[in-house]
Request: fold
Amino acid sequence: MQQQIIEVTNVNKSFQNGKQIINVLDRVSFHVEKGEIVTLLGKSGCGKSTLLNMVGGFEKPDEGSVILDGKSIKQPTKKCVMLFQQINLLPWRSVLKNVELGLAGEKISREEKNERVMEALKLVGLEGHLHQFPHQLSGGMQQRVAIARALAIAPDVILMDEPFAALDTFNRYHLQDELLRIQEKKRTTILLVTHDIDEAVYLSDRILIMESHPGRIFKDIPIKLVKPRDRAHGDFHYYRKKILEEFELSGDQFVPEYNI
Ligand SMILES: Nc1ncnc2c1ncn2[C@@H]1O[C@H](COP(=O)(O)OP(=O)(O)OP(=O)(O)O)[C@@H](O)[C@H]1O
Ligand SMILES: [Mg+2]
Reply:
């Protein structure tokens, strides 16, 4: 039987901007099962990052509940690691030292620490770049260091907020493939935020489509295609078209990055 690892129930959230109160999320409910890749897709400002931040423990709902592995989320934990859009590596630390940072404060032996760091770096193919500094790496390699740092922690869940948005198409495709390969091996649960329909269809087991003002999830679309997926296949285009149509139906004007 599938087990739910993330359960978001009837979440409301408002922010005050000066005198104005913006109702950002309105009765949002969804769940993610262990080992799933689920994507939140919606236009800018619909509340995707706010929702992801709540699952990560960085933001609190005004009402409703956010449960991680059976427990209410009160603060960030190492069970659930966030990968931000801005790659926040420390420029004065080498690749190896940046990945080690993920394990700072863990009560484990030096050997185990080294083992976990090296395993994570091998998974992202950076074992040959241990002593380089972030400025000596391409954007794609820097993002791989950030992914390795998250993997070294061995979290149950990785939250990703547009992690590949700053990369060129080739790097993005390459990293998407690496992510799928690693996820298949580790069975880590991934909750992803993206603007990119192609990325969502390529990676996701399910896509949750959000509408804006206030943010709501109005459609849960399972992507029933075997992985790895073929972006040129008719079935792939079927889902892209279906999702674009959902945005037209919602009244949200969605401008995808490179979909026509
Ligand atoms: N701390 C805050 N204080 C006030 N308003 C906020 C705060 N955080 C978010 N908002 C507002 O909440 C709304 C949703 O923001 P959020 O960052 O969740 O959107 P998003 O869907 O991630 O957008 P994007 O795709 O552009 O990243 C926006 O209108 C934003 O201005
Ligand atoms: Mg955002």
Summary: The CA atoms of residues 169 and 175 lie 10 Å apart. Residues 1-77+189-260 form a domain with the Rossmann fold fold (CATH 3.40.50.300). Residues 15, 17, 22, 24, 42, 44-50 surround adenosine-5'-triphosphate (ligand 1) (CB under 6 Å). The mean pLDDT is 91.
